[in-house]
Write a structure and sequence with these properties.
31% of the residues lie in helices and 36% in strands. By secondary structure, the chain is an alpha+beta fold. It folds into 2 domains: 6-134, Ribosomal Protein S5, domain 2, CATH 3.30.230.30; 137-201, Alpha-Beta Plaits (2-Layer Sandwich). It has a 5-stranded antiparallel sheet with strand order 2-3-6-4-5, sandwiched between helices. The chain is elongated, with a radius of gyration of 23 Å. It comes from Aquimarina atlantica. One of its GO terms (biological process) is regulation of translational initiation. InterPro entries: Impact, Impact_N, Impact_N_sf, Ribosomal_Su5_D2-typ_SF. Belongs to the IMPACT family.
């Protein structure tokens, strides 16, 4: 079975998108995030920027293999804002992303159906203005060995075109490498039998 080891996300905030319906304005924004804390700061900043707005509704999704998400209707009728925004995150199949839709009320009620359409459309427009990129899910390993084995280790790293993320040459040599998930077991099997060279996942 093919291992799925890629995901889609954004690296930079998207351009502001605007959707209008019956004088209400819906501004859509996308932001790259990796923690809930980042999302809170961004939402707080948007509330300052749009202090005269009525609602700041949002949805976010974080994680690649086991994802967490949150939706918020911010005073709109239940499931009329956060859920349609989150639906667009699922539709575009992106993660590590926050979408906020800021609403200025135009004096005319849109009804739940109108709200769902407006929040969904604003989120969709925001995603369409964003630069969506595909990334690989990587496993991080640390190689621990004595200095005399340096050439052997570096030769294997070069042969397999491995990415070094950190090096430490104090008592023992330590080289941190990042390996695409689908190749992780293979790389572990290359280093494991070598005498005097230890390989282990950095999360362990």
């Amino acid at each position: 079975m093919e291992i799925k080891d890629t995901y889609k996300t954004i690296d930079t905030p998207g351009e502001e998108a605007l959707f209008k319906d019956k004088n209400s304005k819906f501004f859509g924004y996308t932001f790259p995030i990796t923690t809930e804390e980042e999302a809170k700061h961004i939402i707080a900043d948007l509330k300052k920027k749009h202090h005269a707005a009525r609602h700041w509704c949002y949805a976010w999704k974080i994680g690649t293999e086991s994802a967490t998400y949150r939706i918020n209707d911010d005073g709109e009728p239940s499931n009329s804002a956060g859920q349609p925004i989150y639906g667009q995150i699922l539709s575009f199949d992106v993660t590590n992303i926050l979408i906020v839709v800021v609403r200025y009320f135009g004096g005319v009620k849109l009804g739940v159906g109108g709200l769902i359409n407006a929040y969904r459309t604003a989120a969709q427009l925001a995603l369409e203005t964003s630069d969506i990129v595909e990334k690989t899910i990587n496993i991080d390993f640390v190689l621990i060995f004595e200095y005399k084995d340096m050439n052997k280790v570096m030769r294997i790293i070069k042969e397999h075109n491995l990415k070094i993320t950190k090096q430490d040459h104090e008592l023992n040599c330590k080289i941190h490498i990042s390996v695409r998930k689908k190749f992780a077991d293979k790389i572990k099997d290359v280093f494991s039998p070598l005498y005097g060279i230890e390989i282990r996942k950095t999360q362990d």
